[in-house]
Write a structure and sequence with these properties.
Blueprint (H helix, E strand, L loop, with lengths): L19 H23 L9 H11 L2 H18 L11 H11 L2 H14 L4 E8 L4 E7 L10 E8 L6 H4 L3 H12 L2 H12 L10
C-alpha cells in the first residue's frame, strides 16, 4: 500500500503563484484520491509490486487502465511536487543548461516553446522535460495520466501539471499565466539538474517513497 507523500514545502510557500487553497485541494484531495483508489485496486491483487514505478509499468503492460490511471497519476503528482520550488532558482546550470541550449538554441526559446506546447495542449495532461539515453532533452506533452516512466529510453527531468485543478482556482482559464509562473519562478532547476545527472549515469533518478 502507498501513502500520500508530504509536500516538500508549506502549502502557502508558493504564493502568490500557487495559492494555499490550490495546494490543499490539489494535494489533499486530488493526489490523495488517486492514492486511495490505487490502494483499493492493489488490495485485490496478489502480485502487487513493491514500488510505485513497477505498479505503473505493470498496469501499462497489462492494459489495466483503471490501475494505470490511478498509479500513474499518483506518481506524476509526486514528481510534480518535486518539480516546484518556493524560491526562484533563476536558470538551469551545468550540463542541463548546455543540453537545453543545444536543443532549443537558448533558454528564452526553451521557455517560449514550453509555454506554446503547454497552452496548445488540449484538455488534461502534463508537460514534461525529458532526457533520452544520449543526453538529448525534449519537451513532451502527454494526455491524462500518461507518463514517461513507462518508456525506458526516457528520464523525466521536470513536469508541469496541465490539468485544470492545478491552476483554475488561481488563474481560471488562463493556463498561459500559470505556465509563465512555472517557467519563470516555480520550476525547481536543482531537482531537474539532479535528474539529468542520473540520466547521464544510466540511473533511475527520483522514485516515489515507499
Amino acid at each position: 500500500m502507498f501513502k500520500l507523500i508530504d509536500l516538500p514545502f508549506d502549502a502557502a510557500a508558493l504564493e502568490p503563484h500557487m495559492s494555499r487553497d490550490t495546494l490543499n485541494t490539489h494535494h489533499g484531495k486530488h493526489h490523495a484520491g488517486y492514492i486511495k483508489k490505487l490502494n483499493g485496486f492493489l488490495a485485490e491483487r496478489t502480485n502487487a509490486p513493491s514500488s510505485l514505478e513497477e505498479v505503473v509499468r505493470l498496469a501499462k503492460a497489462e492494459n489495466d487502465k483503471k490501475l494505470f490511471n490511478n498509479a500513474a497519476q499518483a506518481w506524476n503528482h509526486g514528481f510534480f511536487w518535486m518539480s516546484l520550488t518556493p524560491q526562484s532558482q533563476g536558470e538551469p546550470q551545468g550540463e542541463l543548461r548546455a543540453a537545453i541550449e543545444k536543443a532549443f538554441g537558448d533558454l528564452a526559446n526553451f521557455s517560449q516553446e514550453a509555454k506554446a506546447k503547454g497552452e496548445g495542449h488540449f484538455a488534461s495532461g502534463w508537460l514534461w522535460l525529458v532526457a533520452d539515453k544520449s543526453g538529448a532533452v525534449q519537451l513532451v506533452d502527454m494526455h491524462d495520466a500518461d507518463t514517461p516512466i513507462v518508456d525506458d529510453k526516457l528520464t523525466p527531468l521536470s513536469v508541469c501539471d496541465l490539468w485544470e485543478h492545478a491552476y483554475y482556482l488561481d488563474y481560471k482559464n488562463e493556463r498561459g499565466k500559470f505556465l509563465d509562473a512555472y517557467l519563470s519562478t516555480l520550476i525547481n532547476w536543482r531537482f531537474a539538474e539532479a535528474q539529468y545527472a542520473a540520466a547521464r549515469k544510466g540511473e533511475q533518478g527520483w522514485s516515489y517513497p515507499t
